[in-house]
Design brief:
heterotrimer; A mainly alpha (310); B alpha/beta (262); C alpha/beta (652); A: 310 residues; mainly alpha; ABC transporter involved in vitamin B12 uptake, BtuC; 13 helices; 0% strand; globular; B: 262 residues; alpha/beta; Rossmann fold; 2 domains; 10 strands; 38% helix; 24% strand
Amino acid sequence: MAFDIFLLEVIISGLMTGVMYALVALGFVLIFKASGIFNFAQGVMALFAALALYDFLAEDGWFFAVFGFTLPVWLAIPATGLIMVVLAWVIERTVLRFMVKQNEIILFMATIGLAFVLEGLGDILFGSDVKPLDIGIPQGASDWLLDNFNLYIEQLEIFAAGTAAVLVVVLAIFFQRTRIGRALRAVADDHQAALSVGVSLDRIWVIVWSVSGIVALVAGIMWGSKSGVQFSLSLIALKALPVLILGGFTSVPGAIVGGLIIGVGEKLAEVYIGPMVGGAIENWFAYMLALVFLLFRPQGLFGERIIERV
Amino acid sequence: MTNEQTSEILLEVDAISLSFGGVHALVDVSFDIRKGEVRSIIGPNGAGKSSMLNVINGFYHPQQGTITYQGQARKQMRPHDAAAGGIARTFQNIALFKGMSTLDNIMTGRNTHMSKSLFWQALHIGPARREEIEHREFVEHVIDFLEIQSIRKTPVGRLPYGLQKRVELGRALAAEPTLLLLDEPMAGMNLEEKEDMSRFILETNDEFGTTIALIEHDMGVVMDISDRVVVLDYGRKIAEGTPEEVRTNQDVIDAYLGVSHD
Amino acid sequence: MVNSLELQGETFPQLLLQRLEHDAARSAMREKAYGIWQTWTLGQLCEESFALAAGLADLGFARNDTLVIIGDNRPRLYGSMIAAQALGGVPVPAYQDSVAEEIQYVVDHAEARFIIAENQEQVDKALEIREQCPRVERVIYCDPKGLRKYDPRVVMDIETVMARGRELLKADPDKINAEIQKGKSSDTSIILYTSGTTGRPKGVVLSHENLLVTARNTNEFDGITADEEVLAYLPMAWVGDNVFSFAMGLVAGFCVNCPESTNTVAQDLREIGPTFYFAPPRVFESVLTSVMIRMKDAGRLKRSLFDHFMKVAKKTGVALMDGQSVPTWDRFHYWLGELLVYGPLKNTLGLSRVRVAYTAGEAIGPEIFEFYRSLGINLKQLYGQTEATVFITMQPDGVVRSESVGTPPPGVEVRIEENGEVVYRSPGVFKEYFKNPEATAETKTSDNWVHTGDAGYFDDEGHLRIIDRAKDVGKLNDSSMFAPKFLENKLKFFPEIKEVVTFGDQRDFVTAFINIDLDAVGNWAERNNVAYASYQELAAHPEVYALVQECIEQVNQSLAQDSHLSSSQIRRFLILHKELDPDDGELTRTRKVRRRIINERYGDLIEALFDGRKNCFISTEVMFEDGRQGQIEADLEIRDAAVSEEHSRAAA
């Protein structure tokens, strides 16, 4: 019995980590879907968002230094969201605009450059020390689960899972049902045709980068609340890569499922296979899994439907 | 076809020159398109016909000349402005949104007519929803007009070539264009498909009064459906006039017979 | 809702007037237009029909006038049938895919002054024949698209006619009712032109009584009620549609649904989910073929699931439907299959709500028949013809066989003549062939027995089995029976084979022409990396020949089991270089082989089949889709097929 509880705890904790991965992967998917760009800077955007949020909230930040007060959480989050929109606009104006007809690999390189610029900017503006981010998400284990089921699960993780679910639903509706969503899909499919029906590319790209900036903000909040805002946050971008390979680069549900599989998989591997090979599997297990997928199902779980109905 | 040669000028290109790194695609080309006419642009391969359409809807920006559309003169068009101003088009090599259904593709044609804010859009309720339904109804009429009911929900990537061309026309028609640009609408079609397409083009011109500028290689079709023809060769205008005038023009005959550009 | 048996109307318009009192608000017809199913209540349908009738009367349409109707199944066109009948006139639907020449014959023979055409395509045909048919005064269209510039003195919008009718009805509301009351049950209800295998089409005259009595009997036989959903997608000119959609619909009071276009039938079927459904065997066949092709392309898991549960269905499905006792475990297994495979499959095919489904016209492959029945679809066969108002025999629930066509329903008598021909007598027996007393006399005896022209016999169960056309059944030189259609159908059960023509009458042995099925064989070619550019090239491919040879030899083995048929084994065959085509006159519009024309066009090939040549050159004139003429030439290979010994060892 005790064993079962333990297994359950491992799985659930894996699922929760997976949700975090999924949040980052989601940002990737959005930009990739709409523009075919693999945005290497997605992880850094999450970091940048978390740093900016921290700055609005903390007394050792720029905002306090300039205005002499800090923002309440309910104001700080939309303010950071606004910063991410502005950032998207700046990126479109200074980078993307000049690369419209370039090869995808060039655009990819540009995002690598962007990642370094953002990271440097964050370092200069906010410093590189680890910052605790507290926006009032309840911390510690859920007492109710502990009392009733003898399960130890962080409330933060439950909160993160709930947020991710809401985000996915909102995004799905946005993509499938709205004109903007249809325009986004149109741009993703064929730039010229999209232009010819009056879709403005600049505007679409600002919207896409804004949306993925806001997704990055959510990811930044969750990761920051869990382990503090630190520069290693940008490295989770790398974990998102295997998630995407599993889930397919263009699928929103794929990003979620892929994230969950990687999260659970690496936790289970760490606990059950780790001891046999001397541990520390968690760090590379995800990449191995991705490799296996690349061999057997390169389009990912949700990448493309093979069976087509009439 | 309208025979009113005196009707108002909808679009005028004046002394347009366009080059790409030293290659002259268009040299000092001028002509006009009158409201309600079917205007054909013909010429041998590489004569600059597609470039001309791309200039009109703003894909290419000419180095010289002016474009006057609905009385407003400008150095160049921007695609977004062209679409908003009622210029819709199709492409020589079909540019559809392959992953989307026929219906969604044609819905994108309504883009410039949709006005409700992103906020309502995002919530998908209230005015936006009502608006969506109105546009859907319009699109259904386009679908009925083009007789493509059976492929409404089919992803266009899976359709045969002729039907894709038809869907592309549908997307352009959904915009209720003032000026419709068709880049080789009948290329690669069999005789029956060509007849259908000619019928749709004429009916569009006839029933909705849409002005049409088209590039076409099939001379039979051009002679049948155009009011006026302009002939390009090596990026220059060598003739224009009614189909009959153009057919008997010696420069045109030379361009087609004597000089091969390929 | 009034019980249909209480309705006493003697004509369809009279019936409608009675039903209007109670059912005016019930849905009578639906049509999908602009992506939405639009409904006509019985009240609306009658209002429009009567308005049209008044408008037509104003244009000079009188009692006994004929109204030719050309178009796909549309509520408006069914309404125009009612309009014509209300005035005591006769609707004459024509096949909508006929060429102008075929329509000309019908219009001319029926002496029609009025034509209702669905759209521009049909109007164009009607105008094309106007010179040859000077009687035609008006062509009335339903869909105005593209018709604005036509001569308004001849070509009219149906809306205009109805608007005029409404005006007249305002002044004289009882005008149409009075006309309707003049109708009698013996009045002609409809004339249906049959595309016979030989000669000109004949106009079968059916009375209101024929149709009303038949519809009532059939509704009772299968428990058809007002709650059925029916999709009217087969040509209006075909007797089946007139009985299933029009007559049975108006009598039972169920709603008839018209598809959006001929290309959307599969989707519309799915959306409507009919409860009562008819399709010719080839439709069931092509649906099955497409299912099989899709399953071959499906993932391994899906495929094995499908294969497994289809085996289960084969074992239990039919027994369950026939109400036999089935062990609990099998019952559960089948239930699981229903959940995982049959249910979803029936849903995609649009057959999940089917209570009664019929097929007729030709023999259906036993495999195909069993497939649908094992899925729990109550598919049955009937045997009928236009002259009988469809029904001669039907299969009652619970005793359904694939090789026979059931027993005569109540009111029908069936006899087998000396020469094996099936004859019948029923309340549905037609009045006459229009303007053709000789043909009427040839077919119908003075005491109302009708010759079907089919050869058949009653089997041990008392069910009728049809072998072939009576006149087509010939003899081989060893004086054994040669039934070409029987052989051809056996071969056509293979998905790879689309059309077959066999030869053997007064010959030493049997030979065959084969048409391959481009879909099925093309798919096979793709999977086996056989490259081809055209039908002709694929048909001549040696591997395709091998494929077909296998099919033929399988048939030969089964023929060898039966001492009567053993000498009918196919010894030599060839694959034709072109598809047999109604446009070239080789098939009828209903895709039956025209032997005389085949014999004329391919005489040399037939001789080559019998004289032992290894190949034969042929040049054929064909008509392309755009109407141009052309030549196709080919040097066709002729192959021998292995013949099995009688009661062969092939059992292993």
